[in-house]
Amino acid sequence: MKNFLFLGIAIIFEIIATSALKKSEQFTQLLPSIITFIGYAGAFYFLSFAIRTIPVGVAYAIWSGVGIVLITIIGAVFFKQIPDLPAIIGLALIIIGVIVINVFSKTASH
């Protein structure tokens, strides 16, 4: 269970880094650029702990799927990037995929 905590921390670092990446303006803004580098380093650091016991494909599916959904929400709230219906349907499919992996896949339990 601790490895899912590490995965959650990796996701938090990743969404912080990706949000800062938007603000870095192609790495021309110092503080957001530093936050981006630290955030991605932290994300991969904690992801490396998570994949010690969570299969790498499952961990990556959860990490990227949850990250995509959270970044989309952050984009809508803070950057006024409102997803259209096809994007919302795609996000719903990602969420369904992560649920299927966690609930039904025997791979996820190894």
TrEMBL record:
Q: Name one GO cellular component term.
A: plasma membrane
Sequence intervals crossing the membrane: 30-51, 58-79, 85-104
Recorded GO MF terms: amino-acid betaine transmembrane transporter activity; antiporter activity; choline transmembrane transporter activity
UniProt key word Cell membrane = yes
Entry's family note? Belongs to the drug/metabolite transporter (DMT) superfamily. Small multidrug resistance (SMR) (TC 2.A.7.1) family.
Give the range the annotation lists for the signal sequence: none
Q: What is this protein called?
A: Multidrug efflux SMR transporter
| Biological process, per Gene Ontology | glycine betaine transport; xenobiotic detoxification by transmembrane export across the plasma membrane
User: What start-end ranges are recorded for coiled-coil regions in this protein?
Assistant: none
Membrane-protein topology: Multi-pass membrane protein
One matching Pfam family, short form? Multi_Drug_Res
Q: What is its main location?
A: membrane
UniProt keywords, alphabetically: Cell membrane, Membrane, Transmembrane, Transmembrane helix, Transport
**Localized where?**
Cell membrane
InterPro entries for the chain: EmrE-like, Small_drug/metabolite_transptr, Small_multidrug_res
